[in-house]
Predict the structure.
Amino acid sequence: MLRSFSEFITVNLLLVDKNTRLFDVVSYFIYDSIKILLLLAVMIFIVSIIRTFLPKEKIKAILSRRHPFWGHLLAGLFGIITPFCSCSAVPLFLGFVEVGIPLGVTFTFLIASPMINEVALVLLFSLFGWKIAGLYALSGLIIAMVSGFIVGRLHLEHLINDLSAKTKTCGCGKDYSPVWKERFIYAKNYTWQIVKKVWLYILIGVGVGAFIHGYVPAGFLAQYAGVDKWYAVPLAVLVGIPLYSNAAGVIPLVFALTEKGVAMGTALSFMMAVTALSFPEFVILKKIMKTKLLVIFASVVGIGVIFIGYLFNWII
C-alpha cells in the first residue's frame, strides 16, 4: 500500500515519467522516508515507555552492585535504551565513576549508547530485517563489552578529567514519575523530540541512498568494496571517522551501498565508525578524558569495529 502511494505521488502529483530513472529515485525516496519515520515514531514511543522504568539513579544502583561480567552486559543493554547526547555525556559518565561504578563498565555504556541506540536498531530493522538488526546489536554489544573490559583491566582512572563541579545535565537524563499518564506524556514528548532531531538526517540519508539506487550502475561499488577486497573494511572505518552524522542519516546510505554490491560487513563497519568513532564525538569525550585515554579508547573500539566488519563479510 505504501509503495503504491509513493508511486502515485511520484506520477500524479510530481508528474515524473514512470519509465525513467528519476521515477525510481523519487518513489524510492518517498517510500523509504515515510516508512522509516513512521516506524521510528512507533518504536521510539514504545522504548520511551520502557525507559521510564529505568531512571538514572536506578541504573547507577544496579551497575554498582554487579559481578564484572554482568556489570558490562547490563551497561551495554542500558546504553541501548538510554539517551546519549552531547550535553548529557559528560555528567552521566562522571556520575557513574563518582558512585563507584568501575571505569571499564562505564566505558561499555559509553560505547554502546551511541553505537547501538534505539534509532539505529529501528532503522536497521526497517531496511534489513531482524536478522541483520539482531546481528548488529549483538556485535555492537560485544565490542562495547570487550572494549570496556580491556579499559577496565588497564586501570586508567587517573586519566579521567575532574569536571564534576563544571558539568550540568541538560534534562534528557531526568527521572520521571511512575504514574502512567506521565509515562505517556514523557514518551510522546521524547518521541517528538527525537523525530525533530533526526528527520533531516533521515531525509538526507534516504536522498543520497535514492540517488545511488537510481543512478549508480549495479556492481560498480563492488569493484572497490566487495567482499573479496581485504582493504575495504579498514578503509571504510577511516572514511567514517571524520564524518558528522548519526544512525538516522547513515543507515539509509548503508542500505543503498549494500544494494549496489558493497559487502555487508564493510557497510556496517562504516556505520559503526560514523556513530561511535566520529571526530565530533572525540571533541566531546576530550572534555571527559585525557588524550592518552582517548587514544586508547579509539584504538580499542576501532580494532573491534574492523574485526566485526571482517566477521560479517565472512558469515553473510
In short: Residues 164-173 have pLDDT under 50 and may be disordered. Residues 180-215 form the longest helix (36 residues). The CA atoms of residues 4 and 31 lie 9 Å apart.
